[in-house]
Amino acid sequence: MKKAFTDDVFAVVDLETTGTQRNQGDHIIQFGCAIIKKRKVVKTYSFLINPHREIPQAVENLTHISNEDVAKAHDFSYYASKIRKILENTIFVAHNVNFDLPFLNYELVNAGLEPLTGKAVDTVELAQIAFPTFPSYKLRDLTARLRIKHLNPHRADSDALVTAKLLLKAIKKLENLPQATLNTLTSLSKGLLRDTDYIFYEIGQVARQTKRPLPKDLIQVKHLILKKQNVASRRNDVASPGSFPQSDEEKKELFKKNLRFRRGQVSLINRLHDFVYSDSDNSLVVEAPNGSGKTFSYLMAYAYELYSGRKLVVATPTKVLQEQILKQEIPQLLRVTHLDLDAQIVKSSSHYLDLDGFYNSLYQTDNPIQQTLILQMGILIWLTETETGDLDELQLTNYQAPLFAAIEHPGDARIGTAFAEYDFWNLARSRQEQADILITNHAYLANHYMDSIWGQNPFLVVDEAHRFVENVASSRNDSLQFESFWGMCSHLRNLLFYAEDSAKARFGNNLEFKLILDKLEKDTNDLIHSINKIQEALYDNRKFATSWEEKRQNAISLGFQGQDLFNSIKHFKHLLNLMQDNIEIVRQETNQLLFLLYHQQKNLLTSDDVLIRDLQEEIDQLDYYSEQNYLLLDQLSDPKKLDHEGFVLEISNEDDPLSTNLTWLTLDPEEEVKQLYHYFDKKLFISATLAEQDDFSYTIKKLYLDPKKTLTYRAKPSFKVEKHLKVYALSDNNAPEDPNSPEYETFISTLLTQIKDYKHVLVLFTNLDVIRDVFSRLSENSNALKDYEILAQGLTGSNEKIAKRFGIAEKAILLGANSFWEGIDFKHNGVDLAIVTRLPFESPDQPEVKLRTECLKKQVGADKIFEVDTLPRAILRFRQGCGRLIRNERDHGVFVVLDQRVWNKSYGEHFLSGLPVSAKKVSKQQLLNVLRNSKQNE
Fold first, then answer.
1. Which of 11, 311, 433, 881 has the fewest CB atoms within 10 Å distance of its CB?
2. Which of 329-336's residues contact partners 24+ apart within 8 Å by CB, and which partners?
3. Which helix (H) or strand (E) element contains residue 491?
4. Which residues are annotated as a binding site?
5. What is the pLDDT of residues 403-435, one digit of tens each?
6. Annotated binding site for ATP: which residue ranges?
């Protein structure tokens, strides 16, 4: 059978330019092109072009094309006719076609030639659709993932050739799709850039010429093709559970060919096994250093007891760690032990695709935005591959696209709908009910510990336990964003009365509609006034704040004890109840309007479908704010809660009461944590940083455990850490000592420009403003770090996006604070150099910190807070920062401390003594030698 595109000629083009502004004097410096005929690359072209202007240093760093390289080259006018002839009667293809084609046409027109007007295809969109689970769609990352050799990234000739190979791989992937999937993709593709839809149209046309049976592992439901799902039946209870290998010889026999016998790990396994099998002990706190094999150890210690019908619940802080346990540690456990156990991840329903919602989204009559369209098309392909329907497989860094509101699973049972039998959330629940090991995150466990999914009297392992209580507290934090609320109400009024196609404009002459609209006009106004009255009342109490933090652009953040902010609970409850009544009135009347619209749907225009959907979204928003309001009323109704909650007013304009928003924080979740513990047995709390020397008292107190009933254990590393980790701490009178001085920021920036051999560098700060200043200085000196991708928290994307780029990039420097000390995981690559710019004491100006401090004053007294809370928290975070480097015995890394207080202050020794190896005191010059040469540290 004839293949698609055998008669087409593709010209895959890449340009290197002096910049992106063609109208402001930027020009092409290299033209690269690969010609595809009969689906094979048959010829390539490459021309260096003189732009008759300086090539910026940043462009030279990226492309390695210098002013000297183009000085003797011809200018574009010399090549214009030849380029025009090469591209004539071809399909123009580029990776970001809306840059390359307009830029090239601009140069052609300036050279007196006609612009190109043929078909044009974008490979960025094609890749996003064809490979929906890829973490990045940058050309360099795609070629690495698809194993396409890419010899000279950011050179036009090399980029054009690999883009051609990418195009062919995307075409091959698409033409193997089922016909029904191709049909839907072709229908949706009309909204893609330029003529990218031609790829789908042509593949679909050729595919229809022959009958292709649906593969046995796929099933068609309506117009969707899904991978068949299997829910394994519960293991037969008579299966032999085996017995725990008591002796070293038995373990060596089991480990053979699967796991190296390491004395430190075996000792940990034995200690955990003794705990699980003891009759009396119920809580154990274990510090297990990185590389000690802690995850496998606790899984093996519990595994042999799971045949009694009890489950093991493992709670971790991050998705990356959950995936690692499921896909690496559990399979290794089963290979070693030969046990028949099943493990599943437990997460909220919103992580799963709602098939009914997704199917309906495909048939919305309005044109979706580009991001939504590409996402929908990618999901259609993903549905032929996914066995879980877990949206995390798409590796997105932003779930704020409008589509997600429609396609995230709401968590109901889904009975009687078109896709009920294949519902991903219901299937996940079935698997979880039958599993022996359930892996979840701290926050989900905190909010769902009474769920029947855990089974009767389950075992509990809290991994990364140093973060558990804070994650429980954070999961209980909430807010009422009054600004967004009254903004939503204003949008509702616009839909009803003021927009060109408002409900009033369309139906105002209909008596039934008019009666409801007249009520809504007054009642939406009343609702906005009731919101504003609460804002004004909160704003008036700002003088009672216990802390005051200035943000950028006239914004402030104020912290309050509950009794101070709500000094008249009766008055605030009255205002909140008034707002609640107004919400309900507006909700009912908007529903009445929707009811009338639904009943007249046959007579409505297509644009009215949009109005119906928009009004339904507004009702959903009203429900959300109603729920938040009830939560706040619940706080005010219980004096005990007011004692244990802190409140923060976020005021986006210090001079405007109507910019006031409210957040409430759980400062002391002791009651919730202890209730959670009640539901679980043999509770293990394990992490690499739980003790200071041999003292676990801070951790035990922080976890709300009874010290008399809690056992402790410090595991030993299973390799010599000093051979893998080097620690250097600066001590030099010629270097600035005050971390708050402007000279210190200059000092940090200068040091960073000296980094040479290290591939993944993590620079840890305690202040986002300092990150901004250092990033600015580095940007001004980009030539010194031309081989590195510079990533900065708050500046180069979301935290998730930055972490993803850091993991993918060949060489990167990441400037991060807060969660980058410990909370965000890097996939793929580790860290080989970590630099601490400042000891990680929390800022006392932060409202949350101030509120917690006020709470602690009542418990331990003001003079004890530094000793019992501030210092231990900082040491823990410091140790976690160091722990970024050595995750296993294959890692090598260097930890650098620039803050000289580790030598000059009495508390400094506590930081250094908490590290796994001794710190070497170095001068500024010695430190520069370290940064320039990674080899000396291996």
1. 433
2. 329/295, 329/296, 329/299, 330/299, 330/437, 332/258, 332/259, 332/296, 333/296, 333/299, 333/300, 333/303, 335/258, 336/254, 336/255, 336/258, 336/259, 336/300
3. helix 482-493
4. 288-295
5. 887 899 988 877 888 898 899 999 999 999 999
6. 288-295
